[in-house]
Here is the input.
Amino acid sequence: MQISNSYDYQSNAATKDTPWIRRTFIAIAVLFMIVMLVIPLLAVFYEAFKNGWQLYIASLVDPEALQAIKLTLITAGIVLPINMVMGIAIAWLVTRYQFKGKQLVTTLLDLPFSVSPVVAGLMFVLLFGLNSTIGGWLESMGFQVIYAVPGIILATLFVTFPFVARELIPLMQTQGDSEEQAALTLGATGWQTFWHVTLPNIKWALLYGLILTNARAMGEFGAVSVVSGHIRGETNTMPLLVEIAYNDYNFTAAFALSSILAALALVTLLIQQVMTKIQERKFAKSERLASAPELPVSANATAVTESTSADSTGKV
Amino acid sequence: MSIEIRNVNKKFGNFTALDNINITVPTGKLTTLLGPSGCGKTTLLRIIAGLEYADSGQVLFDELDVTNTPVQKRHIGFMFQHYALFRHKNIADNVAFGLTLLPKNERPSKADINKRVAELLDLVQLPQVANAYPHQLSGGQRQRIALARALAVKPKLLLLDEPFGALDAKVRKELRTWLKNIHHELGITSIMVTHDQEEARAVSDEIVVMNQGRVEQVGTSEELIHQPANAFISDFLDLV
Here is the structure.
């Protein structure tokens, strides 16, 4: 069956647009992308290295910069595993179970995307700040959330929460659960089914969700800015320090840190491209095996009867 | 292994899928559950498998009540209409899957597992596809591998849910003859679900005709043709 793709009528000489329309569209798209994406990115790297390598490296080994880099990495390191587990759990819940309120769960899942990051940060300040019930109680136990690292982690968890689940849900819905049912009939427990059947089937989508989560966790500004308190040397992540450095007229430092974040973005895109290529190549090999007989020779089924007949003593 | 279904009922919301079903399935025979869409045959098969639980009634394997036994412990082999092969495992790993799940003390050695996989691939006449992946095989080939996979753990009961429904007519006919021969060789008690009466008559030792959640008649192909119990049977089997 010929499945129509989106390239059909433009690649067909009989129906495609004239060359000048095509070139105009391409020109507009390329120009827009150069102005809005490429030039700003190049500017970041230019400004970072404008005053030479020495200053660039010096900006990065500055104690405040090192602390910011460390805090960014710690945040990502904590947020990634938590969101991986929770994302898989939510995706499993939504795609394998029917229950009242499932629609509500799916809607709530998109909440971190629709809420402004600043509002998200403020939400946590109101919930866990020193003037709140929970915050006050935690502080009496010596545990501070807002204007401290735990608050930053919470805020980052919130804004990165949907990525893994949103990647997994459509995939798991499309794949269906028949492979999992087959595993059950072959004797697999729930955990064995998940580990040997479900996980391998979702691994690429999961990896991509984690890449998106990581990119957002390292680059988040708004929500983290509100909860961090900008305490120098303690609660600044890289994006926060970029703003502080820029406001201090320390441009080289600001752009040096920005260049790392920009490089992270580019690496993220690169990994995504590579993953897509690998996956495409894996499933492009769908030629039939020429050597395998299409139909069995029904008349003489050569059965290995001793080892496959049912054992009447009940031994498997 | 003989199967007995006693007073099984199943409702989905307001829809009665199974209404007081009582049947026995003789040991070593291939019994078909035949009927139009929605008659409850697949539901009954899945209840026998343990993939669904009945609302009331009992399922007995060799007179042992397995009604509340989980599917993993029922020692069955199940074949799905759309094969349900593990897409990310190669054929050999697919077939070996059930064996690799056995607890350490029961699990055969790697060499023994490979040997058994090779035997099963010979049985289904696809010895050369061990390293291929499911998407490289045709539908008929995939279903044969699905049978090999189901047989790997030596089940005492083989359940087939419209196994040839997704295949084209020629392959369907060839495979049904092949299945009948395999069943004849192996002698495993088997229950197959189909809505194709020609297929049922070609393959089965016994047919259970179902309609709207109830058993209409049980008998061999000959009995159903010569002594249809009611108008539904005559109509469904195209008997004028």
User: Anything to note?
Assistant: The interface with chain B takes residues 178-179, 181-189, 192, 196-197, 200-201, 283, 285-289, 291-299, 301-305, 307-311, 314, 316 of chain A (CB under 8 Å).
